[in-house]
Design goal:
Blueprint: H1 3-15, H2 17-25, H3 27-30, H4 38-45, H5 49-68, H6 72-79, H7 84-90, H8 94-97, H9 104-116, H10 124-152, E1 172-175, E2 179-184, H11 188-195, H12 203-209, H13 214-220, E3 227-237, E4 244-253, E5 264-268, H14 269-278, H15 283-298, E6 302-304
Antiparallel strand pairs: 1-5, 1-6, 2-3, 3-4
Length: about 300
């Protein structure tokens, strides 16, 4: 008997909708691709169709409750699209579930990004805005997965410490570890307040029963005030299973984004400000940029090279 093959077949039945539908119609034919003997196939025949469907549904619900915590605004917006809830459920598939548990959210988000290309939106502008929000949340999921894997493999994560000294303007700076950055159409904090009526694990249970209305989606995306959304993943709690990862966040004006290509450890903030001044930047802009860099240093998103 091959318990490993039986386990693989059962796993596939739970997360492969097509296989499960075929199994409910003809269990023997559905399992033909698996190396199971007659006794093992007979064991599978004892599984009730409604029971396997219920089991799969409950697992999908619990997994989406967990993944939704990493994509709160995206989940809310997608729930308001035609067949949006169905799309989210269908992405709990073999591709998502066969990868390492720490990477499931990123695999899910990558698939969702691909699927959004074929969804129906009110306009191309709306699609672009929702995709930008997904990219920001996917960036957070990626840094979170990287940090979790590092901790689970026994490595000590790089620790950032607040950067503060009298000559902070003159020291070369670089990005801290586990940083992601993206341009989003509006303030992330404001969008989350407007679009997410529940926090954390309560959001998917709410959306699955009461999806966001299309009218509220349109209202939320009516105006644009682009922000550079920067996040840093950090371990907030350790447990025997896996670390809990949260994100430190900062929001700066969109115009700050081009400066990020120079934050590579080779230039100081004073040098970057000097280049901006030579390019004709006003004193107000220079002061705003300096304040932004100070914010990133004190929030541990930048560090001295």
């Amino acid at each position: 008997m091959s318990f490993e093959e039986q386990e693989r077949a059962l796993f596939d039945l739970l997360f492969d909708r097509s296989l499960r539908e075929n199994f409910c119609q003809d269990s023997t034919a559905a399992l033909a691709a698996y190396e199971l003997n007659e006794s093992e196939i007979n064991d599978f025949r004892e599984i009730r169709s409604d029971a396997i469907e219920l089991d799969a549904s409950m697992r999908t619900y619990l997994i989406l409750t967990h993944i939704c915590r990493q994509f709160p605004i995206t989940f809310s917006l997608v729930s308001s699209l035609h067949n949006g809830i169905k799309l989210l459920k269908e992405l709990i598939n073999l591709q998502t579930m066969r990868c390492h548990p720490a990477e499931r959210a990123t695999v899910f988000g990558t698939q969702l990004r691909e699927q959004l290309a074929s969804c129906k939106f009110d306009s191309e502008r709306e699609q672009t805005m929702i995709t930008a929000i997904l990219e920001a949340e996917l960036g957070m999921a990626l840094t979170s997965a990287t940090l979790k894997r590092q901790v689970l493999e026994g490595e000590s994560p790089s620790e950032s410490v607040g950067q503060s000294c009298a000559d902070w303007l003159d020291k070369p700076v670089k990005l801290a570890a586990y940083i992601s950055a993206a341009i989003i159409p509006q303030s992330y904090v404001k969008l989350k307040i407007l679009l997410c009526p529940c926090e954390d694990s309560g959001l998917w249970p709410h959306l699955s029963k009461t999806p966001l209305s299309a009218s509220l989606r349109r209202k939320a995306l009516e105006n644009e005030e682009p922000k550079l959304f920067i996040t840093r993943a950090h371990v907030s709690k350790m447990s025997r299973c896996e670390p809990t990862v949260d994100h430190q966040t900062a929001e700066l004006t969109e115009g700050f984004a081009p400066l990020f290509q120079h934050v590579d450890g080779s230039s100081s903030i004073a040098q970057m400000l000097a280049h901006l001044k030579q390019a004709g930047a006003s004193q107000q802009i220079l002061e705003g940029v300096q304040t932004g860099f100070r914010q990133l240093l004190t929030s541990e998103m930048l560090e001295f090279a």
